[in-house]
Amino acid sequence: MGAAAAPIPHLTVITFLFLFPTIIRSHTPTISVKDFGAIGDGKHYDTFAIQSAIESCHTKPCYVTFPTGTYLTATIYLKSNVILDIPKDTTILGGTKLEDYPKESHKWYVILAENASNVGITGGGVVDGQGSEFVVKFDQRKNVMVSWNQTGACSGDECRPRLVGFLDSTNVRVWNVTFTQPAYWCLHIVRCQNTSIHDVSIYGDFNTPNNDGIDIEDSNNTVITRCHIDTGDDAICPKTYTGPLYNLTATNSWIRTKSSAIKLGSASWFEFKNLVFDNITIVDSHRGLGFQIRDGVILCRRCKRCSEGGLLRNLRFININLTYRRWTNYKGGLIDYRPGCQGLVNHSVAGIIMEHIDGLEVENVNMKWIDGRTAQWNNPLDFRPSTVNNISLLNFRSGFNRSGFDTQ
């Protein structure tokens, strides 16, 4: 007989958080961007002064701080050992011009850390992507956005800068900061090891497409806790684009989204393993939870990329309160597999859609519909036995959001 499958891990305090190299503020140099000529009036670019402050101290741990003001900037390159300290009543304002960003479109971020370690952002202030400046036409269904593909700088329809990105980095910490008005994705974690995101508030335009809250791509050992995410697209979106994703824990967070609150499997070809979501409140979502390897299941005829795909393994969803609201007038009956190879597919709509899973625990989950328009939604769970195995449901409840419905 083969070895028994490893049990799904119980939610604990993730020990690697306490193994991060500790940067003790009281003993760490603090560098002010004002000392390098930053103005902070929101009109003049402070990019050179901010970058100079970062370059002056990154050989050893330091804080780069911003006195009260608004600092307009092109892309800032965050270096190892540097914590950006953005205090309350201070804003970093992302530029809105193509020339504010690198030539390589995959590096279009207002703040970018690449191949860095012991790096982070904190302080209680704001990073603002000026997303409204990228709107061509405001529409309550979906805003029409600028796309820089018309310049030839990138391909695809969604050619706009993201807000904050950590690429190929280790020991990343983002805490006590607000991210607002991203033009595209907000916080992007790519091929990182040991990431802590806590006490972060994210506000995206509810009508702007593709302004995801947190995208975690090919990254391992990630903790998200005490976060407030209010956005028009997917709120927490793990992906396995170039490699697997292991050990993700999200706890004690509040999510409002017009799309999926938690979506696993978009733009993914590799395995997910050991994911825990505990004490999450989700409101106004029209897709809620999606567990799918959407792009990686042998779609050679429709998709240029061929792959056997991966599995979602050892998932735990516990203490989840989820409220659905419909945001379109479409009658239903379609599942949106975009971005990916299939596009829109005829399919019944369900509260939780599951595909390609081996090991799922659902415990103390309350699923509610905001009104009675459920003719096309009258199905809390949807899965095919051929692709889903080892599911456990305990205290799973669903129903209309009527008076007296128990959500405790």
From TrEMBL:
Signal peptide residues on this chain, from the entry's feature table: 1-26
Keyword 4Fe-4S in annotation: no
Keywords of this entry: Glycosidase, Hydrolase, Signal
Pfam family membership, one: Glyco_hydro_28
Classification via InterPro entries: GH28_Enzymes, Glyco_hydro_28, Pectin_lyas_fold, Pectin_lyase_fold/virulence
Top-rank taxon: Eukaryota
Protein family (similarity comment): Belongs to the glycosyl hydrolase 28 family.
Name the UniProt record assigns to this protein: Polygalacturonase
Species this chain originates from: Hibiscus sabdariffa
